[in-house]
Input
Amino acid sequence: MNLTTSVHNQIFGTVQCPGDKSISQRALMIGALMNQEMTVDGFLHAEDPLSTMNALNQIGAGIKVDENGLVHLCKRNYIFQNCDEPLDLGNSGTGLRLMLGLTSGIGLNLSFCGDESLSSRPMSRVINPLTEMGANIKSSSGKLPISISARSLQKQYRYELPVASAQVKSSILLAGLASGTGVEIIEPIQTRDHTERMLKNFGANIEIASEGGKNIIQLAPSNHLHAENYKVVGDISSAAFLIVAALISDSPGLEITNVGMNPSRTGVLQALQNMGANIDVRNQRLESGEPCADLIIKKSILKGVELSGDIIPNIIDEIPIISIAAAFAEGETIIRDAEELRVKESDRLKAVSDGFTRLGIAHKNFEDGMSIMGSSNFLLLDQSTSIESHEDHRIAMSFLIAGLKCSKPIIVKNCKNIFTSFPDFIELISSIGYKLEK
Ligand code: S3P
Output
């Protein structure tokens, strides 16, 4: 599916932020393990969370969705069962890495597969610690296809994260939770803490302390988790596309309601505000242990910024769209310490650079980032230009937003992966004034 942008658009109105992808997947996995009746409201019905739901149902979770989109977890007279068919996690790194932890902890015999992008992504980062815990995992040199066979895990495990990754941290926590193993995780740089918050919210024995600038996360065996209803807040990573759309286009004001405001995810707001963005945060509240708020965004003159160090894991999914904001900001933006972007759904540094080259946006590439020479002027194109999405949802949406500042329509190729995280993107963006043609 190729998408073509339109020119002369004004972004305005009010939209509700779609549910958080990371939280939706965690609610299913932890909820299914709890084996109780529970509803999940605000769930993101996108391909990634749905492939996690299918995988859980393959091992007997019995998760159902009603006609209003409310997700129902049920109480079963068994916990989980083996499955002969591979569990297919599609495009989802979170789905695969967290399911590997969960199912190693339960002790099942299973195999896993995924799409081409997921099959090329590094899984040793979870296979190594899970193997140290006692899991029996076979892989193709640290990649899919992967199989596990049931083995009980050791009783206590301590691990210092060598890479700032919430997926690795969560995989180990879920293995510990499912097996009754006590785990202590040392996290040198803060990454998203949705798993810790959810476990606390459900009554697990989890403590988080800070020592010498590192987080120490301790999860003791926790048998009495309980919840009847969980409400998923909106995904700030999806909101980021709409925020940048309003900032760079001629916008009298865009309101986005129900945006997740977990401090381990709000670096994108901080980065954009440092660039001069006019973003007003209103009505701050807590939903199921996660902060959320409504945002009002107005067209702003942006300036370049430097982004490196501890903020990078916080904005890891937003760097492509921040790069688009930087391309339409005055002066230079420098992004460093972001080499993790090379092993996301695509090599996102290369994908952004390729798109910039097609559009004639001046930039320099580094192994761990890039520098972008921006201009707040409209980008004058002689003719309609096509850009590769590299089959990556965030690259596709980023360049579709860039189209707002281009004098000719741009065609973004192979956009179907938008459905992995933001299935209503085309309709939603059209409702606030920006038409995309299929
Ligand atoms: C996620 C963590 C991040 C992020 C991904 C979702 C999660 O990945 O990029 O989109 O749900 O835990 P890493 O843990 O690999 O940094």
Observations:
- The mean pLDDT is 97.
- The domain at 3-19+233-437 is CATH 3.65.10.10 (UDP-n-acetylglucosamine1-carboxyvinyl-transferase; Chain).
- The chain has two domains: 3-19+233-437, 21-219.
- The longest helix spans residues 21-34.
